[in-house]
């Protein structure tokens, strides 16, 4: 029996393998990297049902244009002559209408809540693992009146989707961070959000799958496919031909290139982000978003990870130190007492978040192919949505009714 091949060994690919192997499917995972350091290991580790507004939201176009003049800005599209970028930007512009966003929010809401429930189920099923789901919630802190208004409006919107949201005064916010000053007007607190250490989760899941007999092909670049009459039978790599019965594309920012090899369109751009770790002193207690700077703060006891920026960069993986400085400068801006040291370049993590134009992932069958599915395009919510995506793909594989309505995630919606 030929295995089901999952192309992409990030957290979405691993959770897809997890749910498939639970149903007795023989699985192999191929990845272009060494499977040690990818977009799944250095992110903020946040599980955020509170994030129901897609990236393509009203106002992002005007903000993006303003931010393009600053190399330290939270969101940056480097202008260049690139047809794929131009196409993506046009689709992004069309998707940023209030009407389109209102259609997208229920899909994000249902997917993220389903994923959080699956994380809780995963933790209960693996009590001996080091994977710990911290349920401290998430604080969105703000310094300006304009952003305060935006965040409070979001809190009211979140409540309409049955999400808990509390608007905190400066004093109430500070009471949740007793060890250091938080320089902000106030915050919105989402007690239903959670976070974990993404590196610990990734390592555990990978080792667990290997112990269950899942085969891993690392440093394996897919150069093409063997297909006939709408069915794929093998992938072509520099290491040789690898046969499979079914195929799942979970290649992150590189999934668009895989789709092109299969002759269907998948608008997707890599959104480069950076993070670095600091000793946690004075100790920050709560996972936090520094809203004006779009910087995520994830405390893990003795250390804390700071991450941010979204640089639409295709698959360019070079480090832009100016963008890292933007993250670093935000620390002192919001936490004047925190003892931060600018990281050496080899201490800076970078990753490409796969961004669809409308902010919704692609989950479902690949157009024109009988045995190919796609799970990609989760932008900054890959960790949040990974278990739900894997579970849905496993249900599609077995031709079951899916746990959620997935019409909004249709793979061929731009075909």
Q: What fraction, in percent, of the residue positions are helical?
A: 25-40%
Question: How does the major sheet shape up?
Answer: 9 strands, mixed
CA gyration radius, whole angstroms: 21 Å
SS element count, helices:
10
Please report the first level of CATH classification, the CATH class of the largest domain: Alpha Beta
Q: For the residues shown, what is the average pLDDT? A: 92
List low-confidence stretches.
Answer: none
User: How does the helix and strand content classify structurally?
Assistant: alpha/beta
Q: In one word, what is the shape?
A: globular
Total discrete domains: 2
Distance between the termini: 33 Å
Q: What is CATH's topology name of the largest domain?
A: D-Amino Acid Oxidase, Chain A, domain 2
CATH superfamily of the largest domain: D-Amino Acid Oxidase, subunit A, domain 2
For the secondary structure, the number of strands is: 20
Please trace the helix and strand order, writing H or E for each element: EHEEHEHHEHEHEEHEEEEEHEEEEHEEEH
CATH architecture designation of the largest domain: 2-Layer Sandwich
